[in-house]
């Protein structure tokens, strides 16, 4: 891994993707092909989409069809094992840094929900309240409160309580989980951590000690109430690609501990309304659509801020068509408009200038409003008792059925 760092070219240095920073010099656009090379993961091609379709006999999720999840590590091995009749478990998480989630935050959870349903497998969701307490200016108490609030949004995505365990680090770390943390920590030198995460001398030691906490949910033995006696159960982690450094480290140490390496399925970032410049910033309300936005907020934000690839006059637009490469309404629709044919139609009409910017924005407003309304209704139905139930340390007796 240190070698990886040394061989980075200057060009690659200009693109920074790690759990705390996503940026690219120049256009600001992330080059995902380069990222795959840089990180050493694999591209998720059409053959995987077909294979998932065959294995689950249900239509592949829109995020698979549209290449939102575009990279992987050993996903093929998970599918091989599944085909032989072996199960696996899913692991994902969230750092609770803000009260309200934006659409980008929902992507891994919507996708994980689909995977859980399609493969009928258990799922653990880590809320890294400790991580956000250490990286953001949040007190322990406030981080814990945000974790519970965010748990409601996560539950609202529709997870099956009979197969899902949600935990917060402040509550759950200890016992077998902590034993694994110590095992991992002993395998990673300070130099290696600096190579992977770019820690600086001024960083407090809490940050340096954090990576094992995010690593060990990849190992079944961290959850004795769920996976006792099935140490060889494989783990699949759906996440955005900025989380890859944590799991590079995890995969590196796993064999030394006698554990399986976790497999990964990784997504691109959901672009900000203002255009593709890395991932959205939770701090700037005008850069994102939040799950708490009203219909009017959505309409105003899309109309005012969504970066358009349309031409500056109707005349020019009719003549040259829209630049779909940079057009945010089109990009957002490709994440959320389910109907493949309609999206194709829009691609042709808008790209050729027959459809106008106002028209595509209107379609986007409808799609987002429906999505946000659905989420709002689901979240309103999540009670404190339900949060407690999802977060209770308990066996899940029917998690594979
Ligand atoms: N570090 C992640 C964040 O800040 C949270 C997280 C913990 C996570 N475990 C994970 C994300 C596993 C994806 C997969 O949001």
Automatic annotation (TrEMBL):
One of its GO terms (cellular component) is cytoplasm. CDD domains: TrpRS_core (cd00806). Its main location: cytoplasm. InterPro entries: aa-tRNA-synth_I_CS (IPR001412), aa-tRNA-synth_Ic (IPR002305), Rossmann-like_a/b/a_fold (IPR014729), Trp-tRNA-ligase (IPR002306). The keyword Ribonucleoprotein does not apply. It comes from the Eukaryota. Its EC number is 6.1.1.2. GO terms for molecular function: ATP binding; tryptophan-tRNA ligase activity. Keywords: Aminoacyl-tRNA synthetase, ATP-binding, Cytoplasm, Ligase, Nucleotide-binding, Protein biosynthesis. It is found in: Cytoplasm. It is an enzyme of class 6 (ligase). It holds the Pfam family tRNA-synt_1b. One of its GO terms (biological process) is post-embryonic development. Belongs to the class-I aminoacyl-tRNA synthetase family. NCBIfam families: trpS (TIGR00233). This is Tryptophan--tRNA ligase, cytoplasmic. It comes from Deinandra increscens subsp. villosa.
